[in-house]
Amino acid sequence: MVIHGLSQPLDITTPEGRVFVSMLAEFAELEIYNTRKASMRGREGAARDGKLNLGANTYGYQYLKDAGGMQIIPSEAAIVKRVFTMFVVVRRTCREIANILNLEKVPTKFKGVKSDKRDFTDSMWAEFQIWKMVQNPRYIGKITFNGYASDQIMRLKT
């Protein structure tokens, strides 16, 4: 088999041709790795500097991309407060809290959302969602990214 490049054909039936194609693949893989690494460094730096750097899906908040901050959704914020009260004060388990919210038909962040990949119209609360909520540093105002919680406080837009 012969591959035709822009400047000359490359014969991959020869040992030299196969080595050359292998080298090209390695350089392509290296470029992908370097791009990913640089992107992660930039996002981590932005989190460290107190800047939101991704569209957050945190229950109780709406990410405002243009404003670069979060806006509280009052109806969801009331549920968040209730979850924390049940967890901290009443000492309910995450499973019990999820069951209570489901019995009351409290919508999740994805309730009624349809996408090409998944239908969330019947989305229900799960134990892990409650656990993630009560462990999330965003609920005490910290900006997070990739396990890093910034000492900077989230900018809330009104």
Q: Return the domain count.
A: 2
Q: Measured on Cα atoms, how large is the radius of gyration?
A: 24 Å
CATH class of the largest domain: Alpha Beta
Sheet-strand content, in percent, reads 15-25%
- Specify the number of helices: 4
SSE string, helices as H and strands as E:
EEHEEHHHEE
Task: Please count the beta strands (DSSP E, at least 2 residues each).
Answer: 6
- Using the alpha-carbon principal axes, give the shape: elongated
Q: Estimate percent helicity.
A: 40-55%
Kindly report the spatial arrangement of strands forming the biggest sheet. Answer: 1-2
Major sheet attributes: 2 strands, antiparallel
Task: Describe the protein's architecture and organization.
The chain is 44% helix and 15% strand. It has 158 residues and is an alpha+beta fold. It has 2 domains: 2-46; 49-153, Putative Large Serine Recombinase, Chain B, Domain 2 (Hect, E3 ligase catalytic domain fold, Alpha-Beta Complex), CATH 3.90.1750. A hairpin with a 4-residue loop joins strand 3 and strand 4 (69-72). Helix 3 (94-103) crosses helix 4. The longest helix has 34 residues, at 15-48. The mean pLDDT is 77.
